[in-house]
Amino acid sequence: MDHTTPAGGGSAAAPTPSGLKKVVAASMAGTIVEWYEFFLYGTAATLVFSKVFFDAGMSELTAIMSAFVTYAVGFVARPLGGIVFGHFGDKYGRKSLLQFSLVLVGSATFLMGCLPTHDQIGFWAPTLLVTLRFIQGFAVGGEWGGAVLLVAEHSPNDRRGFWASWPQAGVPGGNLLATIVLLVLTATLSDEAFLSWGWRVAFWLSAAIVFIGYYVRTKVSDAPIFVAAKEQTEKVAATSYGVFVVVKRYPRGVFTAMGLRFGENIMYYLVVTFTITYLKIVVHTDTSTILWWMFIAHAIHFAAIPLAGRLSDRIGRRPVYLFGAVMAGGWGFYAYPMMNSGHNTVIMFAIIVGLIYHAFMYAAQPATMAEMFPTRMRYSGVSLGYQVTSIVAGSLAPIIAVGLLEKFDSSVPIALYLAAACAVTAIAVLYTRESKGLALESIDLADAEREREHQVTSTASAGVK
Asked: Per the structure, how many domains does the chain have?
């Protein structure tokens, strides 16, 4: 059962809770760090890994596709991380799990920068790369749910969409940081030096920024609503939580969240990952120019997400999300021809427009998903809905796009693929109930009532037997 009755009836905005900005900063700091590392891998998969960790005898597209397969491993690991972190995050708290995920992803990324190449150790090079990528994906899988919930559970009901969108802005923020580092390295080093050792510096830098993110996260605490729910769970032994319980009790929320995620996730990785490949292989654009385009696009995306989040508080989650899904569905049909034009301004505009459409979906996502589940299993619910979808969406999107490009030598099949994915998300939006202004406490009260009814029914059934 979904609960969509807004809390309160007044029009005046509630005051911003004390310490909320610090909570937002802590969530964003870690998110920027973790996604810097995750997307650094995505960019390096095209620019570096296809040349360094795989057999030099492969064709260029085959080598890139092989690199994207290792990229996909991180997505396969993310649901497992979401399940594990979700379970313990609902049990012990959001903060402690977020700190652990940060250290884990930072260690894996640093070690990637230390790996020997294919020429040095052969098959073991991609094997070790895949292992570290799995660990990286596992950690990132646990990061998202905790980061957005830490903010969402501290936020006032009438501005949850705005405040909870800020950790989402940390994703392009991390990508922006990774792009800046790569721009500096490619501008100051020759192509030979960058491929030989320069790319490693970007991965080693993760150690420094992990310390910053970890320190910031030590300065916040879990939201009062979580503390109260945790105490209640400890008092009532029969009260349960975790991934299996959330699937059993809130299947609609889980599957709707997966649908909401599907088109959004594919859209994002086509724009920020496959676009680099397309511009490099089809348009024959140099690396530095591509990185500058992505830098500008990520900066605009970063600014657009909170604006779309605020809009979701004003007009509702559903219209904002639906607009993004519909517009994203048509993007591929004109974006790739715009890239084929070879004009810098036209190409950059195509990328920026794609990320703005994505922002309408991505900004509304945390509040929408948080408002689907009670506090005692919210971390598990949002992590499961968000991360499981990435296996068949974001992880495969660059691989499918490269395969379609290689087979048909045309961008039209890629555009059709994106349109179909966004149609799935649009349908999910139509099945989502509007939750703008909803009090999270009302979800917990309704959940407690359902739990009591369930226990009464179970006791009665046991008595009949």
From this structure: 1
